[in-house]
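WARN retry 2 of 3 for item q-0093 after timeout on previous attempt; input resubmitted unchanged.
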Amino acid sequence: VHAPRRTSFGAGRRVVLAAPSGPGREALAALLASQGFTVVKPDGARRDRADLALVHHSVLPKARFSRRAAAATPWIVFGFGAGRHAGAVDGVIDGAVKPSHLAATLAEVFDGVVAADRPARPRPQLQAPARKLRVLLVDDNHVNQRVAARILQRMGHEADLAGDGVEAVVQAQARRYDLVLMDMQMPRMDGLEATRAIRALPGEASRVRIVAMTANAFSSDRDACFAAGMDDFVGKPVNRNKLFTVLELWSERGPRAVPGESALAPAVRPDLIDREQLKVLRDELGDEMLEELLGSFLTSATELMRQIEAALAGGDHGAADESLHRLKGSALTLSFAGVADACDNLRTVICDDKAVDAGAALAGLLRTLQGCDELLQPKDEQARAAAA
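OK item q-0093 returned
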């Protein structure tokens, strides 16, 4: 028999929150407060001992208190890349802090409840697609093929397989498909070349919707997808939720009206936000606080973009990278995965010192932020409701 699990761990406890300032930190502080914690800054921990330290891995070298001095205080390190500190701290959340992850980690730190002790969660109900689709799955990796094909079949769709771009073009011409899932890097003919060849086919075959499957979801890669004639992209590794979202979107829209139809028709990209995380945040924080934080994010993002542009113009790559880091952190906390990807793209370009590519990467980040702005406008209630 399992002892009843607590859902709130913060009553009467003080938590030191060491994280970059901005909407992301505000959202996390609000989440901790909802658990009953009193949130203090690192300076406040010097006066009275804290019961917990929640530290973003990026500020560890700058922390104003030492692990040795606070040995009696449990430490939880969070953020993408925090896993490398697993052996040195009491708990790790490798990624954005979702309420479920926080609750599980707090249970482990305070109550010693590990994953094996937790009751098994019921399996989620599988969503049913609006209609059955005939999908051409193009990938040279046998394992990837089998996983994606199995997911498609369990959804109720029909999946044909192609091992490279050459096979894809032949099959797209020989049989009518509702959608093509196209890998990017393949022998003989890659995904971009195969897409251009399909768009050049005569008749109905050229109008099929084509969705890229790529592990390189930077803005420059996305622009290349659209330029080749693709309609959308899904990040690897693919899973049921990702495929369900993209298939339902293009199932509803049907084939292209004309072969040259723009792929940028949606005002808000379907992958711009992490829908699951946004729903969790809305449930946890409430509409009013979430709206306030989202508005604050856009305001601070505008200022950060000004700082980034000024830093790049002045050749101060360090300052630009610092502002991009802050923007990415807030974006991840508030579910704007597309913004985080665009920040990563620009940071990579800066790190590689590719001045020619920096302008395009910066433009991609601006476009992505504009998509967020459109999503948050009151006039766009329908897209907003769909996102949540």
